[in-house]
Design a protein that fits this description.
The chain is an alpha+beta fold. The protein has helices at about 35-60, 85, 90-110, 145-160, 165-180, 185-200; strands at about 5-10, 15-20, 20-25, 70-75, 80, 115, 125, 130-135, 140. The longest helix is centred in the N-terminal third of the chain and has 25 residues, at about 35-60. The structure holds adenosine-5'-diphosphate and magnesium ion. Adenosine-5'-diphosphate binds next to strand 1, strand 2 and strand 3.
């Protein structure tokens, strides 16, 4: 194997940088029966690749290569600022612009019924002032208003926890951007989000 730089390693996947490409490789779980584990990895890889391919046709996201590999996804490396690390250091104005654009980006995905599933600033890269969404590992399609509400609620929680200084202002800008794509739909999604928050079921 060529020497590759490891970018990240999480519970589910290891990310390698191979030249200008990223290889996202799913980690086998030794506590599972190997045959079952293979099947689960194959299924999840296929699902993530499919949803990432769709997303990349709608918004900025790394378009995965078509591949027969069943346990890894190969995609372009997005060289930019990971928002989790950089957002707090931008000017207030830039932070607000980013959140407005993020709102538009997520509304475009939701319009096509794509739910990201893990909306945190660790899964957003800013390149040339444009927003790129990565990590559709928990993504799925055919979102109801409820699913969209949960998606946004997770982002709100992430802002509150990690970028707490101006999180309310930032989330307002996000809502403004989101609303600009489909105003009536947006209101329904926000209503659902509020109901979810009242129930408190998704708090952790
Ligand atoms: N296409 C990409 N371009 C640049 N960096 C990436 C890319 N894909 C993943 N990464 C980096 O690897 C990290 C983990 O990848 P991610 O797909 O989010 O997997 P995980 O499920 O482990 O969170 C990201 O937070 C990012 O820093
Ligand atoms: Mg991630």
């Amino acid at each position: 194997m060529k020497k590759m730089k490891q970018l990240s390693s999480g519970a589910e996947a290891i990310i390698y940088l191979d030249g200008k490409k990223v290889i996202k490789s799913r980690i086998p779980k030794t506590y599972r029966i190997p045959e079952l584990d293979k099947r689960i990895i194959r299924q999840r890889t296929k699902s993530e690749r499919k949803i990432l391919t769709k997303a990349s046709q709608i918004i900025n996201a790394p378009k995965p290569e078509e591949s027969k590999d069943e346990d890894k996804i190969i995609m372009p490396y997005i060289e930019g600022d990971k928002l989790s690390q950089k957002l707090d250091f931008y000017s207030q104005k830039k932070q607000e612009q980013i959140m407005f654009n993020l709102g538009k980006t997520i509304a475009k995905l939701h319009k096509q019924h794509i739910i990201h599933g893990d909306l945190t600033t660790s899964n957003i890269i800013l390149k040339d002032n444009k927003i790129f969404m990565i990590d559709f590992g928990l993504g799925f399609q055919n979102g109801k208003h409820e699913d969209k509400g949960v998606d946004i609620h997770l982002l709100k929680q992430a802002l509150e926890a990690k970028h707490f200084k101006h999180w309310e202002l930032l989330f307002k800008q996000f809502e403004k951007g989101y609303r600009s794509i489909q105003p009536l739909e947006a209101e329904k999604v926000f209503e659902k989000m509020k109901a979810i928050e009242k129930r408190g079921r998704y708090r952790h």
